Amino acid sequence: MLFGRLLPWILVVSGAVGLLAAFTLTVEKFELATNPSYTPTCSINPIVNCGSVMDTPQASAFGFPNSLLGIAGFAALLAVAVMMGRRPAWWVMAGLQAGLTAAVVFVHWLIFQSLYRIDALCPYCMAVWVVVVVAFWYVSVRNADHYCPPGRARRGLDVVVTVHSLVPVLWVLAVIALITQRFWWYWSTLL
């Protein structure tokens, strides 16, 4: 049941939120490029400041804005989510797994860069972090469930499926803890 009806909805929501965030970041990046005095809508304070993040080499890791990767990737994720009304071919799910694995590695690199090199956070980027991890987790569990043989591994996977939301929740809490710890010097002044 988890993968029959829930997974397509998880992927639709993840894809839509990610696509909206990536599109907004792209618009903001182009506006900042054409108007250096422009203040992005997500520049709220010294820490939550998209302008500071967009103005770094990490924001264009491959020579163009990272958000363009997001637009393509999240559009593909939405396309697969729509296809999940029928059982997608194995190669579609393998491709989705490969893409989401690359995305989750890239997102973790971006988290490290934001926290420990750039020293600023972008709310749109953080939304992307969350939806990439959620989509990666659920696609990984679905694929494992689909191909797992009976026996000890199957029993372990059945336990994971029973508590399926625990891993993404713990991941988000871990990132919140890192953010809190890293910027405590600023957050404590607000109390």
Give the CA-based shape.
globular
Mean pLDDT: 92
Indicate the low-confidence ranges by residue numbers: none
How much of the sequence is in beta strands? under 5%
For the sheet with most strands, the description reads: none
CATH architecture type: Up-down Bundle
Radius of gyration: 18 Å
Number of domains: 1
Helix vs. strand class: mainly alpha
Brief characterization of the structure:
The chain is mainly α and 191 residues long. The protein has helices spanning 2-34, 50-54, 66-83, 90-118, 123-147, 152-162, 166-182, 184-190.
Question: Your description of this structure?
Answer:
This protein has helices spanning 2-34, 50-54, 66-83, 90-118, 123-147, 152-162, 166-182, 184-190. The protein is built from 8 helices and no strands. The chain has one domain (2-190): Up-down Bundle (de novo design (two linked rop proteins)), CATH 1.20.1440. It is mainly alpha-helical and 191 residues long. The longest helix is centred in the first third of the chain and has 33 residues, at 2-34.
